[in-house]
Predict the 3D structure of the following.
Amino acid sequence: MRELELIYEGKSKLIYSTDSNDRVVIRFKDDATAFYNIKRAKIENKGKMCCAISSMLLSYLNKNGVNTHFVEQVDAESQLCRVVEHIPIEVIVRNVIAGSMAKRLGINEGIVPENTIFDLCLRSADLGDPLVNDHHVVALGLASYEDLQTIYEISAKANSLLVDLFNKAGIQLVDFKIEFGRAEDGTLVLADELTPDTCRLWDIDSGERMDKDRFRRDLGRVRETYEEVAKRLSNVLK
Ligand code: TMP
Ligand code: ASP
């Protein structure tokens, strides 16, 4: 599959068209950004690590009945993916209270609720990706109630598969963000990266953070930690 032209450049990824109408190539960059580009850095090897981690996780989900846009890894930094019509909603799945939820509601990080929490955010950097609910999403014409039902079902299934896999790697999956798209056949598929940039991962033994919070909160060893996540996942998926 030949890469043709750059069609989109995001903060951490580039998207290229290919000689097939229903495929794109997504290339991961070494850039790390947080707080809407206020904090920026280049982290050597990050593109490769995120590509490897996301490829492992999306292919694991594909094999276990959660359809994603991922087709195959094409080189160390790039994935071949299905073209989808992207829905501009972020779905955040939380198994443990952390991050913005802890801050917004004044709860300590680390509390484990009895239920799984699903948040929806509108993807709009100008508005600061505001929290929305099902009714807002339907009113904005972004998805129907039936679509949302499917999105919650896929998100819950992905969560239980990922919790189980990360557990085997000695990592607690605290929370993660995913996005969805409509494929050519009209079905909803998970269409996003799954990396330490978009998940909170805590080492089960030490509680140490193994995700982008190391960068956001200046905890150091970002590169080494992403490499450790890739190594552990590759060992459990062997
Ligand atoms: P939050 O605590 O900031 O709401 O983040 C929850 C999870 O979602 C965390 O794993 C980081 C991820 N996330 C993204 O990947 N992109 C985003 O824009 C936001 C807000 C969160
Ligand atoms: N929405 C955040 C940002 O703009 C994402 C994050 O902190 O991961 O960088």
